[in-house]
Amino acid sequence: MDMNEEEAAEVADKFKEESVESFRNKQRRRSSIQAPRIIDPNRRTSSVSNESCSSYTGSSSDEEGINPREKTQKSSAGFTDFCVRNIEIHSVGRKEIEIAEQIDMCGLMALRRRAKTDKPLHGAKIIGCTHITPQMAVLIETLIALGAQVRWAACNIYSTQNVVAAALAEAGVSIFAWKGESEEDFWWCIDKAIHADNWQANIILDDGGDATHHMLKKYPTAFSMLKGIVEESVTGVHRLYQLSKTQKLVAPAMNVNDSVMKTKFDAFYCCRESVVDALKRATDVMLGGKHVLVCGYGEVGKGVSAALKAVGCHVMVTEIDPICAIQACMDGIRVVKISDAVGSVDIVISCTGNKNVVTKEHMDSMKNGCIVCNMGHSNTEIDVNALKNATELTWERVRSQVDHVIWPNGKRIILLAEGRLVNMSCTTLPSLVISIAACTQALALIELFVAPTGRYKNDVYLLPKKMDEYVATLHLSVFQARLTELSEEQARYLGLNKSGPFKPNYYRY
């Protein structure tokens, strides 16, 4: 229906009044919210506020208050053998754990149901040193359901979710971990997990080798009584091989880091999904069009590079291995030396597991606003210590896990999680990935604990292929996948057992 000029003017005036009132309402809502403090990017380092400092003074954790070691806490049942940030928040953590159990962790929950009656870990006393997340809590409670006693600490000072640690403590788990631990707190927590009255561990589940080496150095007699060690990280496995080479490894060790499922899912698929989320949560950066240097093109580097290419980044990689380098070339990625590219890129991500991959000299060459972070396990990949010890540099805390490191000329780089794992510190990991990794860990623990004397020597072993295939089978239901079965004739033709394993150990997936 057509409107005359008078009606049209009336509608326009009404719309204008509604728009003005809507704007005023928005302004009222905004005025009730405390605005964040804006930091002038052109401000010289000589005029930093009390939120900045002339040199590094501590972690970038936003959890302040009394150190948990100084608190007296107990669960509702009177349990006190733990140290967490705040036991009172346990109900929130329990909900997080329940969500993890119901979403994508079908494999680990199926393992719990199948083995719960047999209790294959009855008598096992496990020291755990891992990330503390809802998904890892599902593993811890699965080990307990299978008969184990556990004591736990965190392998990373930033990745612990305090609500989850509180929920585990409320459930009676001896856990010593909170987000934002100092280095001293970190080693104190590991020591508390290892050493307790009337408690002798017989197996270790480690992520990085810190619990293993702390026990070896401080409690060598107790270390010599271990039945086995399970390790899930590149760094930790490397340290185990060093112990084996020097004949200091007193128990068999299972390398689950290089199991097929762990390598593909925890390294490639997990990093492919989590790196973009971590960068955006920490910095709000627009990734399309950015120039990114990825140091290392192993499984982690491949996943990181694939994700960044998918959102429109221009990716270059560095590599020491010619096979990985030519893989990058075939994937359309330029392979460079770090010194040739570091001065022109917008983001630098280390993915090697090595040390001093990104040095202070490299960071001196970076352009203003370059984002620097680590996706490899080791927190030594970026030489953060050199930055902390450089008195001419200024550290400015922007938000949790995000620091500006400012040079005397006003240039600043954005350092995430102080060089520790950015995807564990600034975001969370997919439950399916953790379920797969946790299943490999649980099966490795069971294998080492129940193995008859003599099956394994004091050396480092890979997870048996049959167990890798079992972990994959447990998780196929997530995708409603149905396997094809070999006929007897087909199995004989291939020289295989109908139930597997289907590939030899040397097969490259």
UniProtKB/TrEMBL annotation:
Residue ranges, compositional bias (Polar residues): 44-60
InterPro entries per the UniProt record, alphabetical: Adenosylhomocyst_ase-like_sf, Adenosylhomocysteinase-like, Ado_hCys_hydrolase_NAD-bd, NAD(P)-bd_dom_sf, S-Ado-L-homoCys_hydrolase_CS
Record note on cofactor: Binds 1 NAD(+) per subunit.
Keywords, in A-Z order: Cytoplasm, Hydrolase, NAD, One-carbon metabolism
Stretches for region Disordered: 1-73
UniProt GO MF annotations: adenosylhomocysteinase activity
Start-end of Acidic residues biased regions: 1-10
Pfam families assigned: AdoHcyase, AdoHcyase_NAD
One GO location term (cellular component): cytosol
Keyword Cytoplasm attributed: yes
Full protein name: adenosylhomocysteinase
A single BP term in Gene Ontology: one-carbon metabolic process
Biased composition (Basic and acidic residues): 11-24
First-tier enzyme category under EC: hydrolase
